[in-house]
Design goal:
There is one protein chain. With 417 residues, the chain is α/β, with parallel strands linked by helices. The chain contains 16 helices and 16 strands. The radius of gyration is 21 Å and the shape is globular. The N terminus is likely disordered.
């Protein structure tokens, strides 16, 4: 048992000398093209697409981005879609997806895919989950039947789904939780990564990423980073954030983890979708992000704009005949007014679809602008302009100021004295 010496929890477990250290893959190439201090622009080459980072991945839980077609996603420049292993295994089922040649064929998506492991459902569906060393048992929200998801089963399902990037099953706890459960989850995550590596049958076609856990405890995060790096994985994710923690704690964990991860491997911050957070994390050296936020907030009538958000349900929108964003070249901003969208959002499904299109367009442009600004040597100028639009009165949050100091980006001209 390669992972046997860590089976009994204990602080000495991370020093175990017999853990497997390799997870070779031919399915990913990561090339850093340019940097500004910690921030970097890179090319991430996957079996189905060559991606430019930093990049944002829309979430397609059930193999679809709600309200958008694949053709629309392609025209918007979407590079990777994220699918949910837990939900796809329930419906339509991994075997069916495998029979038609994998998720790319099933959903007719020719670009890259990433599937999560199902670990996040330990938090989001905690009332339906029972977590043990063997795995996590869920009560299916579809038919009420018990479903045991082990590290091996998670990888087997993801091998059948066939995404370009697959995620190791981790033991996820709420970010704000403290105490022994956080330590238990981190060490279990380390034991489970070894079981995931051993179970992975398609390393030449799918890249397995490990996930850094440890809550807000810097010591636990440090142990987890070092142990995962020792396993020489194709890429690494930072998990367990964006769950209600203070923003000061959020950026500090990102900065700490990114600093310990390899320069030549992609770094993925899970569950981050607020534009400000993405800009800060990119300044700190992260590369990849995912979140339901752009499309979920669209369903509530909220559009993303350079100044922040535009609430199209507000009465003031009823007679506003401007586009959502006059600087945006997307189809929605070219053809529809705020007043028209206001008339739709509360009554018609089309309203949320149109706003979803715009919001994804905004996120794709943000990704391109981040990448190009680093390539062109103008990253500080991009950050400064972004913050001036978001905070025209100079009231940039203190946590952003602190993070940018560590990132080496001067934003003093954006802040009120």
């Amino acid at each position: 048992r390669a992972f046997g010496c860590q089976r009994d929890l204990g602080k000495e477990a991370a020093d175990c000398p017999t853990l497997p250290r390799t997870a070779g893959t031919m399915s990913l190439r990561f090339e850093v093209l340019a940097k500004f201090n910690r921030a970097r622009a890179a090319t991430l080459t996957l079996p189905h697409f060559e991606c430019q980072t930093p990049l944002f991945m829309p979430v397609g839980t059930q193999a679809t981005i709600k309200g958008l077609t694949n053709d629309q996603l392609e025209e918007l420049g979407c590079q990777i879609i994220l699918g949910n292993t837990y939900h796809l295994s329930l419906r339509p089922g991994a075997n069916l997806i495998d029979q038609v040649g994998g998720l790319h064929s099933f959903m007719n998506w020719q670009r890259a895919l990433l599937t999560d492991s199902g670990g996040f459902q330990m938090v989001s569906l905690l009332h339906l989950a029972d977590i043990t060393e063997n795995g996590v048992t869920f009560q299916s929200p579809v038919d009420g039947k018990a479903m045991l998801l082990t590290p091996e089963e998670s990888i087997q399902i993801q091998n059948k789904i066939g995404a370009d990037i697959i995620m190791a099953l981790d033991d996820v706890v709420r970010t704000t939780l403290t105490g022994p459960r956080v330590e238990e989850a981190m060490y279990r995550t380390l034991r489970w990564i070894d079981r995931c590596i051993a179970a992975h049958q398609r390393p030449e076609e799918q890249s397995l990423f490990g996930i850094v856990q440890g809550g807000l405890d810097s010591h636990l995060r440090d142990i987890c980073v070092k142990e995962l790096v020792a396993r020489n994985l194709p890429g690494y994710a930072i998990g367990g954030l964006s769950g209600g923690e203070k923003k000061e704690s959020f950026w500090q964990v990102i900065a700490q983890c990114v600093a310990g991860l390899p320069e030549d491997k992609p770094r993925y911050v899970m569950g981050v979708g607020f534009p400000l957070d993405i800009v800060v994390c990119s300044a700190l050296g992260a590369d990849m992000y995912d979140c339901v936020y752009p499309t979920r907030t669209a369903r509530f009538g909220t559009a993303l704009i350079p100044e922040g958000v535009l609430k199209l349900k507000h009465a003031a929108m009823a007679m506003d005949f401007r586009p959502i964003d006059e600087s945006c070249s997307c189809m929605i901003c070219k053809h529809y007014t705020r007043a028209y969208l206001h008339s739709l959002v509360a009554k018609e499904a089309m309203g949320s679809q149109l706003i979803s299109y715009h919001n994804v367009a905004y996120m794709m442009k943000l990704s391109r602008d981040l990448h190009n600004s680093i390539i062109d040597g103008k990253f500080p100028e991009f950050v400064q302009e972004f913050l001036k639009k978001q905070f025209p009165k100079g009231n940039v949050p203190e946590w952003v100021c602190n993070a940018m100091k560590v990132a080496g980006v001067d934003i003093s001209m954006c802040c009120s004295k």
